[in-house]
Task: structure prediction
Amino acid sequence: MSKNASDFQTGDQVVYTPGHANGDTGHPDAEVGFVTSTNAVTVFVDYNRQGRGKPTSPGDLTLLRRGGDAPLNKGQYNGTCYRSACDRHPAPWYNHSTGHYYCTTCAFDINQANHADAMRLFGHELCTRGEHVEVS
Ligand SMILES: [Zn+2]
Result:
């Protein structure tokens, strides 16, 4: 459960969750960044892509993607956006056509582009916010 600085590597994409978010990586105050370096106890994370790492306690970080690997939880609820060119996080919007989850920005684009068809086919927007539970 408790995480160590050695659990993280330079280049990892991580999300920082402040204490009051209780580990919810979809919390509005959660911040996505990239690990620039680590030492024995601290992970340095670049949150604004300016190349400078901010010291962060490893216990407040969740790994999104190991450097160079495919994003973790791509297309899953509150994982990484399913759109291939997008690596935003979280992805709380369910696309009723692809069956995967998208970030807010992409979901808005998709809804705008498919509004008329979606209303005809589903009676609602193509992407709806929240976890979709299959009713069988
Ligand atoms: Zn996206």
